[in-house]
Amino acid sequence: MRPREQLSAFVKDALVKGRSREEIKAALHDAGWTASEVSDAMNSWADTAFDPPIPRPRPIVTAREAFFYGLMFAALIMTAWHLTSISFRLIDIWLPEFPVPEGRAAWSINGIRFSIAVLVVFFPLFLIMNAKAERSSRLDTAKRRSALRRWFGFLTLLLAALSLLGDLVYVIYKFLDGDLTSRSLARAAVVAVVAGCIFLYFRKETEEADSAQH
Amino acid sequence: MRSTSPALGVLGLLIVAVIAAALYTTGGPLTARAERRDEVRHGDLNRLVDYVQCVADKEDGQPPETLSRSSDCWQDIRLNDPYSGEPYRYEKLSDVSFRVCATFETEQPERASPMPDDRFDPSSGCLYSQSYTRRLR
Fold first, then answer.
1. Which of A31-40, A123-132, A205-214 has the highest mean pLDDT?
2. How far is A158 from chain B (nearest CA, A)?
3. Do residue A105 and residue B10 have CB atoms under 8 angstroms apart?
4. A86 and B18 in contact by Cβ < 8 A?
5. Domain span at residue B67?
6. What is the rounded CA–CA span in Å between residue A141 and residue A213?
């Protein structure tokens, strides 16, 4: 049995034996459990006089959800990556710093065409799946509590935050390196807008998921 | 509730704008097809230059007056534009130099030549070259 389950089982036994919630909390606290662990364990049983204690619903992970959020995450990553890639290539064409060899220009144009194809497929897919996830979480709070949904949200936040920080590092480095041209600024701006939009959106999303949990 | 999220809206607008700009810059499928045809023409010109140099080698370094198939040289050449059917234009410019030209559909980029003395002129669509034997003398 994992510590968390052990703790929850203990709270249940104590409740069955008729101990009050305050008593149990104090005992757990004395035993060295932290406040968040104690409240987590106490919250796993409904605060009613009903005997035996009623378990509260817990976040669960289902294979269907793993498929759904995995695909949605992939669609978002593909979208962000190729949006940035197209923008970089367009910036290179619009703000050339030195003559580009002919082979590389053709390669870049083919890259742009491939990225357009990726965006046309994956961005609508992300929008549809995201709208579906929102609709079902509005109808069903259990969905909003979904552990995968939270993981997906926080993983996206982590990647977006890392991109923003990396972007800032890039700008400072380019500045110190004396290479802060309109081209590198435009590149940095693209990353800031793409990562920023995703960050803002998922911060709101994870906050809502968090508030649904308690 | 979040279906009108501003962040997602900005992202969507950015994607639409970028795709539109990308299509405008790179051209649609028709441009892509024309570019591919022009690549074939450019390849043909390069092979013709090889071929003419081979023929000139057999003629003491003198480029031929006109372009025709010779049994002495085995380069795999095309004398006509495979798409329009019109012949590639060949011209002997001097005792050493010559040019081969094609009509390109798209604006041609500056191209680096495989040989140092070859030169491609994007505006006229001509590839200028010289025979080896004469040059070495």
1. A123-132
2. 17
3. no
4. yes
5. 39-136
6. 9
Cα–Cα distance, B77 to B74 (Å, whole number): 9
Please count the structural domains in chain B: 1
The enclosing H or E element of B100 equals strand B97-101
CA distance B11 to A30: 51
ipTM (interface pTM): 0.71
The answer to whether the pTM exceeds 0.90 is no
Letter for the amino acid at B33?
R
- ∠ CA B120-B122-B124, nearest 5°, is 95
Q: Which residues of A touch B (CB under 8 A)?
A: 79, 83, 86-87, 90, 93-94, 99, 101-102, 105-106, 109, 112-113, 115-116, 119-120, 123, 127, 130-131, 134, 138, 193-194, 196-198, 200-201, 204-205
Each residue's pLDDT tens digit, A97-108? 766 665 566 678
φ/ψ (deg, to 5) at A91: -60, -40
φ, ψ of residue A78 to 5 degrees: the values are -60, -45
Other Cβ atoms closer than 10 A to A163? 19
pLDDT tops 60 at residue B15: yes
DSSP letter string, A58-127:
-----HHHHHHHHHHHHHHHHHHHHHHHHHHHHHHHHS-SSPPPHHHHHHHHHHHHHHHHHHHHHHHHHH
d(CA A165, CA B37): 45
In a domain, B54, yes or no: yes
Torsion of CA A169, A172, A177, A183, to 10 degrees: 90
